[in-house]
Amino acid sequence: MKKLINAIESFVDEACEGVVAAHPDLVRFHREPRFLARAAAPKGRKVALVSGGGSGHEPLHGGFIGVGMLDAACPGEVFTSPVPDQMDAAARAVQNGGGVLFIVKNYTGDIMNFDLAAELLRGDGIDVRTVITADDVAVQDSTWTAGRRGVGVTVFVEKIAGAVAERGGSADEVEKIAKRTSEAGRSMGMALTSCTVPAKGSPTFELGETEIEIGIGIHGEPGRERTKLISADEIVERLAHPVIEDLGLKRGDSVIAMTNGMGSTPLIELYVAHRHLAKVLAGAGVTIARALVGNYITSLDMDGCSITLLRADDELLRLYDAPVHTPALRWGV
Amino acid sequence: MKKLINAIESFVDEACEGVVAAHPDLVRFHREPRFLARAAAPKGRKVALVSGGGSGHEPLHGGFIGVGMLDAACPGEVFTSPVPDQMDAAARAVQNGGGVLFIVKNYTGDIMNFDLAAELLRGDGIDVRTVITADDVAVQDSTWTAGRRGVGVTVFVEKIAGAVAERGGSADEVEKIAKRTSEAGRSMGMALTSCTVPAKGSPTFELGETEIEIGIGIHGEPGRERTKLISADEIVERLAHPVIEDLGLKRGDSVIAMTNGMGSTPLIELYVAHRHLAKVLAGAGVTIARALVGNYITSLDMDGCSITLLRADDELLRLYDAPVHTPALRWGV
After folding, report:
1. N or C: which end of chain B has fewer CB within 10 A?
2. pTM of the prediction?
3. What pLDDT is recorded for position B99?
4. Domain with CATH 3.30.1180.20 in chain A
5. Does the ipTM surpass 0.90?
6. Tens digits of per-residue pLDDT, A113-134?
């Protein structure tokens, strides 16, 4: 296992310290229990957006802390749910009376631990809502999931609900737009190679030299099918068509499209993939209103890509375009 | 070789089309001869900034086209210099009487081909200046270089000279700040793994399972030493100290620091590296005024990182902070 790493035990803490070293104006780090939060508290009463999950998916979630997105993120160990104490402490640190929205990817451990934290917080009179993302169309149930896995749409939920929270939306309004966004997005991913979890030290799964896995999860969970290596265009079609169908996109629709790298995919290849996604969508009469191409929700050093499409309308686009200033997404500021 | 690719011959063209598909508001593509240019011509007389080089270093250079940075970029084939026709056509397309600045990384082929294009353009009365970046402290001469290789500082030259050009600076002013920036930066990189050039289909060089290469070039050119795998902190020290020494940084100095991924390095690891860079600099009494952590100048699918430090002063920081809107760097807009 070759990685830029010092010790397995301190890997996540050190990465958190690195985020703060790079962005001290945006993010601060609380070590015990572990969470990252905005360096400067927002002015006025604001719904606090708190997310989190296992580490290894960077920039998700810590890279999305800042004006217009998250207030705090709780990183678990690599591919391991954060514990309720983390979400409890993070929520208490960033809430200021406007309520809290938990943004939770649909994995059993995450759901359980965010729920436990919500109970603790509600016991002290804090208004906690939860939105669950479950956008991965590849498989219905999975290794760590009842129902679909939560993946790329989480980025859009954090951005769009973040915009409503930032402009002073109520807990009801923030919860409503978060759920609407979550339901408007679908994703599917694939792997050219496995990832390697530091604590294990060897690849999570084996893929032959000419094999790829379609429908993979962000922890290396099995997908729909293992197939031989096919062209970038064919790969994109295997991902895009199920997403388009599941979302029920029709001619005249428009989307926010994300061509996402799994962690070790060169940008030049992501652009080759995005090119064909644009062609497939054009063929279906669907307009790309906005696009993200790059690493937004990753799986350590997995090579591969995922596609997320969010059905767009004027309200979602306006909120997506609202100013954001985080380590990983920034515009209008 | 597992990549998101359709065909070797069309790889670079397709990636260019993908950039445009993702950012039609920012970038347009001219196929023959090949260049990328701003989608919307800047208003008024403006020095045109044109860069380019072999492909495989994305987002450099095409990802830096837009307001506040480049006017055009000429992508060669993978790790292959663009030909003079490309720079000639790109410069003619984007210049509007204010002169042209070529930003060229110090590789023999690039220098020669940009020089030939400059001759052609000057023959038609166009004022062409050239700044050469040569910031890699690892080796003096290299496989493809007389003198030091041009690497990470190129990003800062494009940003800072771009700011002066955007606000209407003269060709003299843009050239002067570009040269000053180029001379104020130093870099060094390392590889955990080789890259694989699609046309070859196998790794450019061999590294054992517990070997790394310190001082590597962005095409896999040999570095200073091959050593056994060491910790992230030790790696950062092997890169940072030569850069700090060569730049002559002293207590009280401040820098813009870039911890750059070579293409397939997970962001979580780059943050671990950046954490220690911040510690090393703090130990030397040097302040990080601004930081970039991510993939900015890559080497296809090479795993590893490089560090670039730019000695900062008020003028350079003000220009660095000026608004920019490109596919890969955006702020203030």
Report:
1. C
2. 0.98
3. 98
4. 185-317
5. yes
6. 999 999 999 999 999 999 999 9
Inspect the interface and report whether the beta carbons of A232 and B21 lie closer than 8 Å. Answer: no
Helices vs. strands in chain A: H and E counts, helices first: 8, 14
Q: Which of A58, A268, A292 sits opposite B268 (nearest CB)?
A: A58
Report the CATH superfamily, name and number, of domain A8-184: Dihydroxyacetone kinase; domain 1 (3.40.50.10440)
| Whether B19 contacts A272, CB under 8 Å | no
- Extract the runs of DSSP E, i.e. beta strands, from chain B: 27-30, 35-38, 48-55, 72-78, 100-105, 128-133, 185-191, 211-214, 225-228, 254-261, 287-294, 304-311, 324-325, 330-331
Tell me the residue length of chain A. 333
Q: Which of A140-154, B82-96, B174-188, B289-303 shows the lowest mean pLDDT across its residues?
A: A140-154
pLDDT at B165 over 90: yes
B43 pLDDT higher than 90: no
Residues of each domain in chain B carrying CATH 3.40.50.10440 = 8-184
- Quick one: pLDDT band at residue B296, thresholds 50, 70, 90? very high
What is the C-alpha to C-alpha distance for residues B127 and B92, in angstroms, rounded to an integer?
11
Q: Which residues contact A176 (CB under 8 A, 6 or more apart)?
A: none
Mean pLDDT, to the nearest integer, of A296-312? 98
A219 is catalytic: yes
CA pair distance B86, B116, nearest whole angstrom: 11
Q: Has B61 been annotated as catalytic? A: no
Between CA B26 and CA B41 the distance in angstroms is: 10
Helix (H) or strand (E) holding A89: helix A84-94
**Residue A43 banded pLDDT, cuts 50, 70, 90:** confident
Mean per-residue pLDDT over chain A, rounded = 97
Chain A with chain B: Cβ pairs closer than 8 A: 194
DSSP calls for B227-290: EE---HHHHHHHHHHHHHHHHT--TT-EEEEEEEE-BS--HHHHHHHHHHHHHHHHHTT-EEEE
CB contact under 8 A, B275 and A21: yes
Domain B185-317 has CATH 3.10.25.10: no
Give the residue with greater pLDDT, B139 vs B29.
B29
**Tokens found for residue B21:** 């598909």
* DSSP code of residue A62: G
Contact A2 B298 (CB under 8 A): no
Our CA dihedral for B264, B267, B268, B274, rounded to 10 degrees, sits at 110
